[in-house]
Automatic annotation (TrEMBL):
Residues 37-507 form the Major facilitator superfamily (MFS) profile domain. It comes from Streptomyces sp. SID12501. It is found in: Cell inner membrane. Keywords: Cell membrane, Membrane, Transmembrane, Transmembrane helix, Transport. Belongs to the major facilitator superfamily. TCR/Tet family. Residues 1-27 are annotated as: Disordered. InterPro entries: MFS, MFS_dom, MFS_trans_sf. This is MFS transporter. It holds the Pfam family MFS_1. It is a multi-pass membrane protein. The chain crosses the membrane at residues 36-59, 71-90, 102-121, 164-184, 190-207, 227-246, 252-274, 295-318, 324-347, 359-377, 389-408, 483-503. SUPFAM superfamilies: MFS general substrate transporter.
Amino acid sequence: MQGERNPVDSSSRRTKPAIPATPGAVRHAGTEKRGAVVAALMLAMALAALDSTIVATAVPQIVGDLGGFSVFSWLFSGYLLAVTVTLPVYGKLSDTFGRKPVLIAGAALFLLGSLLCALAWNMGALIAFRIIQGLGGGALQGTVQTLAADLYPLEQRPKIQAKLSTVWATAAVAGPAVGGVLAAYAGWRWIFLVNLPVGAVAMWLLARHLHEPQRDTSGPRPRIDWVGALAVFACGGVLLTSLVQGGVAWPWLSWPSTALFGTGLALVFLVVVIERRAAEPIIPGWVWRRPTIAAVNLALGALGLLMVAPTVFLPMYAQSVLGLAPIAAGFVLSVWTLSWPVSAALSQHVYRRIGFRNTAMLGIGAAALILLAFPFLPYPGSPWQPTLLMLLLGGALGLFQLPLIVGVQSTVGWSERGTATASVLFCRQTGQTIGAALFGAVANGVLASRLGGASDLDSVTRALGTGAAPEATRRAIAEAVHAVYFGAAGAAALAFVALLVLAPRRFPVLDSP
């Protein structure tokens, strides 16, 4: 590993931009070429960011054409599972073979999946092709974040991270509109076909302008832990499937749920055995043995957990309790995409003074208080009240997430950066999956107790769309969402405690970027 470890954040001092000395590091010739690579990264990230929002809008047209309403949720679950379980695999591959070949291969696989999705003849085929898309999407999400850290020294990394955050914010706002226009005027298949020219431009820019030095081939040939990769994929797939489908496709205490959880736990044991014996493990033990990375893994897992409350339940609350139209309800949620990237871009001025850990604790502490305030809003209340809370929440989470990602990437050298970045992103994705299952069960339980057995949250929300909801139903929905927000505040508190107890006060940042 390059450089010596500094006992304090290098965020507290100025560093001179330097090209990493690691053999595999990115070598860029001038600002112009680096700008072209950044443009490619933003295009690649846009493919992943737009995917879910643009597809969700076209679901009615897709189901009307292909059928399969009972399983259409797997259009999203299948993609999410594939992205999540491949993140650590791509992280290790990028550390072994370089970022460029992994990112280009992942983008090519994503585009192949997009083309196949546009040619799908039934819902089963479309779901299978969405999984292929997800296999490439894991490379887009993880490798783009890693390469962004390679391109810039520590003091400049907030700039590129803010740009990537802006891509996600723009996708959240523009995705539904773009999906609706394409589905209405061009046909739903075009929501997948539009990926092809965007991805092609990104791949061309990467191939032409991203230059990584020749790797030293005189040493032993890199060994890929394919057995470990397969075990990780199987383990993650089984456990995440049990969480996604539990309480939806079958009851939590049914034999399918028990069988999947049991198989998943057995596979966890198998993964540990395989990875401990592997020469180059896909998930090396150091991502949990180093307190800094372990703390950030847990904290971002909690972030994924708490994000479910606003993204999944706030639109339903806005429509059923506040009586807003779908577009207005979407605006209540989307305002956090305005404050999040702004706060992330400005966070560097905070963590340079007080350090990565304290900045993140400040952000997640504020987020916990904001989430806790939501259940105390007056009933039924005015739309500006949750809108203001979402604006504040985006600012708090921008102050929380970016310092942790930049901080972790700065504590490792080039040869470990892909694995470390994939580790924290994997934990965040897993937290979102667990949160969807956990908070869905909480909301269903509250509804069941308030409405005398109406335990299917989906059927309740569909009934709300048919007209004015009865007062008892509106109050039940409000109480269910309040319970979810209490849980989200608890997740924020867990993230705060993980950083307080496990993370060092000053991240051990390397002297070299």
